[in-house]
């Protein structure tokens, strides 16, 4: 998300009533409204109600004649399902929101959580690795997770088979966070249902996805960025050269987190990813002491600045653009975008136009399905 457009620049007031939470859910769940668009609409229109009222007109300006926002009944149904599951809806800007996520390029506006939400603001270390972990890999993960949790660190992982499972089990008594790719009431893999129940009682299950949503392949990279985002450092224990754990490691680096890796035998394919990380500069981990020594300078108990809440005064309505001017802007933007991601701030510089002019046009094109926005404000043209 380009500098100046991050939600911490003009943070929205968090919802305080059920009706407010319904409005946030309706806006975030509306078709083609992603995280960046959600915060942009709140900033431009001052409130979720005003943003919802404006969405159909924005969509029509983008050429979408029939655009319906997420309905109130469905939003209230999600809230009810969350309450039935014993889950808490945590909103950006609230006292419960994890402070570590404020500096992400795309902080989730809403999080569903089941369990001890106080764990979200304790020093945390992420641990990921192979699903088909070796016996040695599992033992290493359990040893590290147990010793680090005993030292007061919350272990964060993804509830997957293998290393994730070992990490959660070993740190359960001291608090562990499982970040899910689907809804917090949909446990995947199903074989970890009992572990998930234990975590909900002694630790925390968390997800940015809607209640009841079964995880799909595209949800796992989104989940991975939260595992690293919640952590001051990420440990990779057994990972092949093309492992999803390496995606989490890249997320950690992009987020300014420390990356650590457990080395393995050079001829073991399950260790090739870890060995590559170490070759490229990750900290080599032989024991929990290595981890503690590396992360100590990061001062995990130092407060992370939480954005001050604005008065949320709606901004004045932007000047309406003429049809010809809008069409010309659409064409200029689309001509500069392709299948390769381009940072939004770079596009704005290329166009030599104010961000306040380009931003609303990008929303129109996103709602029209002509462009897509990925993490970090990266834009691509839909082909």
UniProtKB/TrEMBL annotation:
Coiled coil: none annotated. It holds the Pfam family DNA_processg_A. GO terms for biological process: DNA-mediated transformation. Residues 318-377 form the DprA winged helix domain. Residues 89-295 form the Smf/DprA SLOG domain. Belongs to the DprA/Smf family. This is DNA protecting protein DprA. It comes from Lentibacter algarum.
């Amino acid at each position: 998300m380009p500098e100046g457009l991050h939600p911490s620049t003009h943070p929205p007031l968090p919802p305080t009533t059920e009706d407010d939470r319904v409005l946030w859910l309706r806006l975030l769940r509306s078709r083609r409204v992603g995280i960046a668009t959600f915060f942009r609409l709140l900033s431009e229109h001052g409130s979720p109600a005003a943003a919802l009222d404006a969405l159909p007109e924005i969509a029509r300006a983008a050429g979408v004649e029939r655009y319906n926002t997420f309905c109130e009944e469905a939003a209230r149904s999600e809230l009810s399902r969350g309450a039935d599951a014993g889950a808490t809806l945590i909103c950006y800007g609230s006292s419960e929101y994890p402070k570590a996520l404020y500096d992400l390029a795309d902080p989730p506006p809403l999080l569903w959580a089941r369990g001890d939400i106080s764990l979200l603001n304790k020093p945390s270390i992420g641990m990921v690795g192979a699903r088909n972990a070796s016996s040695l890999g599992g033992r290493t993960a359990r040893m590290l997770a147990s010793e680090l949790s005993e030292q007061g660190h919350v272990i964060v992982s993804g509830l997957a088979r293998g290393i994730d499972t070992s990490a959660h089990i070993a740190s359960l008594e001291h608090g562990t966070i499982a970040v899910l790719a689907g809804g917090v009431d949909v446990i995947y893999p199903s074989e970890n249902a009992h572990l998930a129940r234990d975590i909900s009682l002694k630790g925390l299950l968390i997800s940015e996805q809607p209640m009841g949503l079964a995880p799909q392949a595209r949800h796992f990279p989104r989940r991975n960025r939260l595992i690293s985002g919640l952590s001051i450092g990420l440990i990779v224990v057994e990972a092949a050269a093309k492992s999803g754990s390496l995606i989490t490691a890249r997320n950690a680096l992009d987020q300014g987190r420390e990356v650590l890796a457990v080395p393995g035998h050079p001829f073991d394919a399950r260790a090739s990813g870890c060995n590559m990380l170490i070759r490229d500069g990750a900290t080599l981990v032989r024991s929990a002491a290595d981890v503690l020594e590396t992360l100590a300078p990061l001062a995990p108990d130092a407060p992370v600045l939480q954005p001050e809440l604005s008065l949320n005064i709606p901004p004045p309505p932007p000047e309406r653009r003429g049809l010809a001017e809008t069409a010309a802007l659409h064409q200029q933007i689309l001509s500069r975008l392709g299948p390769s991601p381009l940072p939004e701030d770079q596009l704005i510089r290329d166009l030599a136009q104010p961000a306040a002019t380009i931003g609303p046009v990008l929303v129109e094109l996103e709602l029209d399905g002509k462009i897509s926005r990925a993490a970090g404000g990266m834009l691509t043209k839909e082909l």
